[in-house]
Amino acid sequence: MTAVQSRAESTITVHNPATGAVSGTVPIDEPETVAAKAAQLVAAQPEWEALGPTGRKRWMLEWQGWILDNADRITEVLISETGKSHVDASLEAVATADAIAYWATHAKEFLADRHPKAHSPIYRVKRFTTAYRPYPLVGVITPWNFPFAMPGLDVPPALAAGAAVLLKPSEVTPLSAVEFVRGWAEIGAPPVLGLTTGYGETGQAVIEHADFLQFTGSTATGRKVAVACAQRLIPYGLELGGKDPAIVLADADLDRAANGIAWGGLFNSGQVCVSVERVYVEAPVYDEFVAKLAARVGEVQQGQDGDTGAMATEAQRDIVARHVDEATAAGARVVTGGKPTGVGTYFAPTVIADVDSSMTCMTEETFGPTLPVIKVADENEAIRLANDSPYGLSATVWTADKRRGERLARRLEVGAVNVNDALVNVFCPGLPMGGWKESGIGYRAGGASGIIKYCRQQAITTPRLPTQKSELLWYPSSKRRMAMTLAVMRAFAARGRRRFGLRPRNG
Ligand code: NDP
């Protein structure tokens, strides 16, 4: 049973992958429908931009209130289309409310005009302004692993910037996005947040009309999205796959490391772009750590009322099973778990020991509740193996020495490193969130740059002095004025004798 079982002519039927129950239906929008929705959003955008950050903040905080008031219902909808546990699902509405507050309250400061100083005295006669003007329509394409929180990461900063947004959720989990957009409509906010549902073709149609495209999903689809954006010459941000390493050093608190890595690897059944996907442990503590990790993972309860839930699709469960089977066939040892439970799309939380770096569980994104562990001689080997990946999303380092942790962080080729913790950076929009290498392009958050990315920067110059009839370089051209202008520019740009058109004495 997959989450999306049937494709009627014009609707998608959504199923709960844990039980097979039908959860709802959404329309499949044809390209003409997407075009019409985009046109309506673009028509409404100028008024939204004109409200300014303070006017927009009012609507965004009202929307935040609606989300918090409806958090229980949103959680139920999430469970019904993902098979998540209640604890995993309940985080999404509140985390989204937190992000909305951040962008709504900081937008005024982040979008304020900047007035850069003139780089040369010649230009001090001008007042310089950098203004931030939103892209009219931002397209946001989101995956199925966090159907409410993923739009919650990308839509609020775009709205706060003054853009209109057209959201296209995954075909597997569109119902939470319906709630996300319903909240905006129910508070009576300006019609600048729209929803379009359907398959990949609907996503392609969004790209056809967007002025900026923010995408989260697989590296393979991200590449296609990048090509489509390049053809239209529109900018984009991509948040893609990962294979995040954890490095456990011999001086680490092994109980904390085992607890943190278990959570970082199994949260949301491992269907997190930044989940811990491979673990490197220094040899002296390898056996002890594997035992502690296996004990922790073995205690994890699955089910709607447990710690963690089902996989979002059968296909995803099958990838996890393949990675485990290929590892054991090549000599790795399953310490706990290792199999689908046989119920819905559940896969038992798994620890695999004695893994080697060539196994698919170490090279391909698993996106499931598995923790393959490998023994390393020292920190240098750990760093070398951790960096030996096409992905570069995030990593964790576990050590009693915080300085050593930070030092190792700076040697890792990834966009984020948590020392003695996991996933925490994702909940902090003041920090950049962006994948290096094949894990993405652009930064999703990160304070001012997380909102400025949804803006076109505009340079404005205005005279400081009373205006003249003409300027030095204007027509009619004059050799004398040109020579004078060049001499002044040279005098301010160059150093030493070159300022006066002379060569250096020793030159
Ligand atoms: P995809 O990357 O295929 O899908 C992500 C989103 O892109 C969905 O909304 C999808 O719509 C849409 N889409 C698909 N094709 C196109 C296209 N040509 N143009 C525009 N939009 C398109 O992810 P999958 O669901 O297939 O997952 C595959 C793998 O990706 C997983 O196994 C996992 O490894 C990784 N993944 C990574 C995530 C992350 O957070 N970095 C999140 C989810 C998955 P639709 O679903 O309707 O086809």
UniProtKB/TrEMBL annotation:
Supply the Pfam families for this chain.
Aldedh
Chain ranges of the Aldehyde dehydrogenase domain: 7-459
Source superkingdom: Bacteria
Listed name of the protein: Aldehyde dehydrogenase
Q: Which family does it belong to?
A: Belongs to the aldehyde dehydrogenase family.
Question: Could you tell me the keywords of this UniProt record?
Answer: Oxidoreductase
Annotated region (Disordered), positions in chain: 1-24
User: Key word Oxidoreductase present in the record?
Assistant: yes
The record's CDD domains line, in alphabetical order, gives:
ALDH_DDALDH
Where do Polar residues bias regions lie?
Answer: 1-16
Question: What Gene3D superfamilies does the record tag this protein with?
Answer: Aldehyde Dehydrogenase, Chain A, domain 1, Aldehyde Dehydrogenase, Chain A, domain 2
Which residues are responsible for catalysis? 239
The reply on keyword Oxidoreductase is yes
